[in-house]
Amino acid sequence: MPQKKSKDSNRLKFIDLFAGIGGFRLALEMFGEECVFSSDFNKNSQIVYRDNFKETPKGDITKIKAKEIPPHDVLCAGFPCQPFSVSGNQKGFDDLNNGNLFLNIERIAKHHKPKVIFLENVGHLERHNDGNTLETIKRNLSNMGYNFFYEVLNSSDYGVPQHRKRIYMVAFRKDLGVSSFKFPEPTMKEVKLKDFLEPNSKAKNQIIDETLPKAVKIEGGWKVVNKKTGKTLRKFLWKDKKGRRVNAKKKAEDVVKKGMLHPIDIHDRENVQSRAIKTIRVGTIGKGGQGERIYSVNGHSATLTASTGGVASKTQAYLVKGKVRKLTPLECKRLMGFPDNFKMDVIDGTAYTLLGNSVVIPVLKLIYREIKQSIYKNGKN
Ligand SMILES: C[S@@+](CC[C@H](N)C(=O)[O-])C[C@H]1O[C@@H](n2cnc3c(N)ncnc32)[C@H](O)[C@@H]1O
């Protein structure tokens, strides 16, 4: 990735913990900051990170001693959110495998005493465990000598057409004298998902009604085929009285009854044209569960996720020029604020996961601009 060369003597050193594909790094390098250490143990994240930043992140942070990490001014971490998210198990700090990863941030910060700690997590962290989880983070950082600030921001309010509420936490070392901090005001710029999309011709694999199973009448019964390829889907074969397979009988019967497995229902054609800086739900696939909701491209996308299922898993579905489809990995990149030339040489499913786990670059940039102004305003750095 091109790095801004800063002539600025204010150039700060930062570390990129739980680095993923490097969202924090991308944002801070745009200010000319220098990354001196990165860590992420996921092989696919490491590949993407290396391809873009020419550095492979170190592995498991729990096994890295604080003294092995170079001194730095800013500690960045979008630490794993599963223990805190609504869809996760909500164990928080009781989850020794994940929640306690925060203790590694503390351990490293205690040793290096960076000027600033800059964290991101799911919006639900604010209310997790009746607010006790956030209170614990605040108390621990305060005991370590930091002033702590946080806010839940929705990227929809900052010129990015994706509904994504995330908690951003910023802690300043007390000797910097930053006793108040203002998160950036919403820009409320009216942007629409449709301006971030590729033509449908580039999204053939994402068009849902062409990839769904459909029932075909054959002599003596029905078979279920892939609508696009016409191939028989063995998982939907079921046994009849003569003893043929019973696999997925109910689903298969559904296919026969409804013509296809997940009937698409666009219930709100009126709203398809309306204008808004939020999501506009216009339809449903099947029962309308996770990955089965259809939105208008005149509004914003739903939150991109790393793990939700359904036929439109990880992106949800959109009515794009008459076709119901998922988003492409390139579109997801744009909705997270990554440049089109950001390299992601991984299969689509992995790209969705990595992007769904990442951070929205334009929001990070706006916050980081405030951080820099705050630390230099006081002249005590
Ligand atoms: C929510 S994602 C952060 C994504 C990142 N902010 C980005 O821009 O892509 C959390 C990351 O923590 C990593 N992780 C989880 N446990 C880890 C550990 N013990 N050591 C290093 N990385 C870990 C995961 O592989 C995942 O990439």
Can you describe this structure?
- The chain is of the alpha/beta class.
- Helices cover 22% and strands 18% of the residues.
- It is elongated, with a radius of gyration of 24 Å.
- The model has no long low-confidence stretch (mean pLDDT 85).
- S-adenosylmethionine binds next to helix 1.
Task: Give the structure's gist in a few sentences.
This protein is of the alpha/beta class and 381 residues long. 22% of the residues lie in helices and 18% in strands.
Strand coverage percent = 15-25%
- Name given to the CATH architecture of the largest domain: 3-Layer(aba) Sandwich
CATH superfamily of the largest domain: Vaccinia Virus protein VP39
Calculate Rg over CA atoms.
24 Å
Low-confidence segments: none
Task: List strands and helices in order, with pairings.
Blueprint: E1 13-17, H1 23-29, E2 34-38, H2 43-53, E3 74-77, H3 101-112, E4 116-122, H4 132-143, E5 146-154, E6 165-173, E7 213-218, E8 221-226, H5 249-258, E9 264-266, E10 281-285, E11 293-296, E12 317-320, E13 323-325, H6 329-335, H7 348-356, H8 361-377
Parallel strand pairs: 1-2, 1-3, 3-4, 11-12
Antiparallel strand pairs: 4-6, 5-6, 7-8, 9-10, 10-11, 12-13
Helix pairs in contact: 1-8
The structure holds S-adenosylmethionine (SAM).
